[in-house]
Amino acid sequence: MKPTTSLAALAAALLLTAAPFVLERVALAQPARGAAGEFERVRDVMSNRFKNTKLTGDPDKDFAELLIASFEETLFLAKAQLNYGGDRELREVAQKIQDEQQERIDALKKWQVRSREPGYRQQPDQPPSGTGPLDRQAQAGSARPEPASPPPQQPSSPPSTANTPLVSGTVQKIDEAAGKVTLDHERIPNIDMDAMTMAYKVQDPAMLKDLKVGQKVRFSADRVNGSITVTRIQKGK
């Protein structure tokens, strides 16, 4: 009985020793299923976040608001990398972002609360907002150079819908004001997007006419001006 007991104890010890290495390899080699859709969402949210941020005209408050938005979107991107990325170095970068950016966001939000208090001044001799160097220069009558206007961007031609495949989906929500439709759909092969539920812009708002929530449709989607857009919808009979 002693040899059998010794072998069992040795096997148990080897398993305990190897367990951390096995778990580490599993964590680093997790499958990327859903990664394409996750990073598409990150890109869409990051591109729209600044457009939707309301500015007050106060440079200090607007700086804090836009910086918070920037940090929060960086956190969103880091979370996607931690969920799907396998490279050890990039995962360490993403983890460092999560550890550091949240502290910066909290500090900025505390400043926002303090700045709403009547008569708030961060420093005793701090001038009011809107009295920075360029403001003082303008008040002194110095000419302030106007920034050169960028050349007008030529809109890219819409992609041809003839070669984009039709995929099946179900209408979950319709937002005619924003020109968007939320679809629960199967995989979209031409843009390598996994099956999911997501809101998309439509290339022509007329596509939303007569659509109903719960309706089965077949549709095609492609990248138009950098955003995933529904280019065609066929209503189910």
| Main sheet makeup | 5 strands, mixed, barrel
Order of helices and strands: HHHHHEEEEE
Output the strand order for the largest sheet.
1-2-3-5-4
Beta percentage is 15-25%
What does this structure look like?
A hairpin with a 2-residue loop joins strand 4 and strand 5 (227-235). The protein has helices at 2-28, 35-49, 59-84, 88-115, 133-139, and strands at 167-175, 180-185, 196-202, 216-224, 227-235. The protein has 237 residues and is an alpha+beta fold. 9% of the residues are buried. The chain is 43% helix and 17% strand. Helix 2 (35-49) runs antiparallel to helix 3. The chain contains five helices and five strands; from the N terminus they run αααααβββββ. Strands 1-2-3-5-4 form a five-stranded mixed beta barrel.
